[in-house]
Amino acid sequence: MSQPSPVAYDSKIEGNVIFTRVDAAINWMRSNSLWPMPMGLACCAIELMAASSSRYDISRFGAEVMRFSPRQSDVMIVAGTVTYKMALAVKRIWDQMPEPKWCIAMGACASSGGMYRSYAVLQGIDHLLPVDVYISGCPPRPEALLDGLMKLQKKIMGEHALEDQKRSLVDTL
Amino acid sequence: MTAQDSVTRLQERFANAILKAGEFRGENTLSIKIEALHDIAAFCRDELGFDYLLDISSLDHFGEDPRFEMVYELYSMADGVHLRLKAVVPGEDNPVAPTISDLWPTADWHEREVYDMMGIHFDGHPDLRRILMWEGYPFFPLRKDFPLEGKVSDVPEVAFTEVAPLAGGPFVTIPTDGITEVREPRARRAGDPLSTDKFLAES
Fold it and tell me: Does B173 have pLDDT greater than 90?
């Protein structure tokens, strides 16, 4: 003759509810599924490939899905020497990536032109794009790339995702 | 056929066009007149068996007249023989050399590179476009009067260049058996003594 009480603890639902802020939830999702646009231009690209292999396993950080279409990418990893002939092509691909987007300058060449102080090489991709993380090294080891990726994740976790990027939605609420 | 046989036969056949024949450590070099280049190259390929064009390069003797010089490296697969042809190109403002891309198809891209980097035109070339820099780039970067740090250029929507910061460079290493600190690249200018004492004293 026992009736289930309507206000009792429901173990099926209770365990699946999390209270958080929208910003934190959005940032958590974004930072743990960063799909890279691999802009491999020189030897740094080899280290970038090594980072996604099983030994270093970039998929532990949710960034293993190398998208060769800029429309599906979140972070552009500029890995290598950006020549002036290539520079505007890189810029064009960057412009095709949807917001929000981030950029990692991997290695000395992408960060500053590296050892190529010459007529043919752009002296750092930050002349064209806003760079979030610079990684030193010539080329950097995969661990350095993973460290840069974690730094970028930390940066994304601190962003005001809703306020900055969904201003009209916040206003209507 | 040895390289010496080839040189002898060329000298018999093109006595007027061959200015100098030299040999250094087994490498034979012929200085020839640029007008006879195509005939000599064709003779080398068809009669002497030089079936492989290894490389084409160019020199800029800046300040001399004539200023430019072409260098052709020929090789015979069957005999294992190497031959080098050199020819000065007249004209400082608009140097023109005959093409040999009809003899060796590989000369097509080699000549495009020489045109791109040094600004030497090739008479009769089927497709003389820049190959490394982009169409519209106004300079020839491997000429001696082109600065290492580059010059400013802009072709809207295509490409642009800026001057690279050399920070006191160019950075040059000194051949020495000294410690790494002495060997490492430092900013040195033309005329600086090649002594390492100065840098040792600094350290």
Answer: no
Among A88, A113, A118, the residue with its CB nearest the CB of B158 is: A88
Residue A106 pLDDT grade (very low, low, confident, very high; cuts 50, 70, 90) = very high
Share of chain B above pLDDT 90, in %: 48
Identify the CA nearest to A118 among candidates B85, B187, B62, B150: B150
Does any domain span residue B166?
no
- Domains of chain A from N-terminus onward: 36-172 (3.40.50.12280)
Q: How many residues does chain A have?
A: 173
What is the rounded CA–CA span in Å between residue B46 and residue B103?
A: 9
Residues B125 and B189 in one domain: no
Pairwise CA distance, residues B36 & B16, whole Å? 9
CB A115 within 8 A of CB A48: no
Edge-to-edge strand list for the sheet holding B68-76: B18-24, B27-32, B81-89, B68-76, B52-60
- What is the reported pTM? 0.78
- Show the domain range for B84: 3-139
Interface mutation target, options A119, A121, A123, A126, chain B, most CBs of B under 10 Å: A119
Residue B177 pLDDT exceeds 80: no
What phi-psi label fits residue A114: left (phi over 0), alpha (psi between -120 and 50 degrees) or beta?
left
Identify whether B124 is part of a domain: yes
Report helix, strand or coil for B141: coil
Q: Is the CB of A118 less than 8 angstroms away from the CB of B164?
A: yes
Model pLDDT for residues B46-105, shown as the tens digit of each residue: 999 999 999 999 999 998 888 999 999 999 999 899 999 999 998 888 899 999 999 999
- Which residue type sits at B94? N
Residues 149..188 of B with a Cβ closer than 8 Å to A: which? Answer: 149-151, 157-162, 164-167, 169-170
Pairing of strands B96-98, B81-89: unpaired
| CB neighbour class for B190 (10 Å; exposed up to 12, middle 13-18, buried from 19) | exposed
Any domain includes B133: yes
